[in-house]
Amino acid sequence: MTSGKPATGAPAIHDVVIRRATPADTDAILAAHRDSIESLGPASYPADAVAVWGEGLSRDLYVNAMNGGEVFFIALGEIDGHPAVLGFATHRVDDGVRHATAVYIRGSAARRGIGSALFRHAEADVIASGGGAIEISASLGAVPFYLANGFQETGRGNIRLRSGKSMACVYMTKTLPSASGRAHAQS
Questions:
Q1: How far apart are CA 69 and CA 65, in angstroms?
Q2: Would you list the domain boundaries of the chain?
Q3: pTM confidence score
Q4: What is the CATH code of the structural domain delimited by 13-131?
């Protein structure tokens, strides 16, 4: 997603602002999510898998997630001279204990460090909320990104999509320093 050489024509990281998203941002998040799946997904999945991956995405999906406590961070920049959400990262708590994140970047903004910057915001939110680890089900194409950001593979399998169909994924985890451990290290 965001590792490797910079994409031609992609914005430089210094041209990007990252902030916490609000429900007013959900249409732009939806556009970035679809772009990421449609532009980056085909490198790792056949066309039919990419098509079902994007099924069921809607503005309400993100609004409901935010209302349920999921935190979204967005990267704002420009595409063809127009302001746009270049990507987003999330942090949510599943079953009251399992911390999870997701990172999606538009194809035109990939490999610029934007995904890693977004992930650091989500990771900081996990640490601030007391999470000791992050567990994810990574898309096949995102595995190098997550490895570069300190995750370890724990297994392979399939994830059930909103459509009810499944897609191959890689289970990964990252152990985090505690918030109190960071405070002691900075003293």
A1: 6
A2: 13-131
A3: 0.86
A4: 3.40.630.30
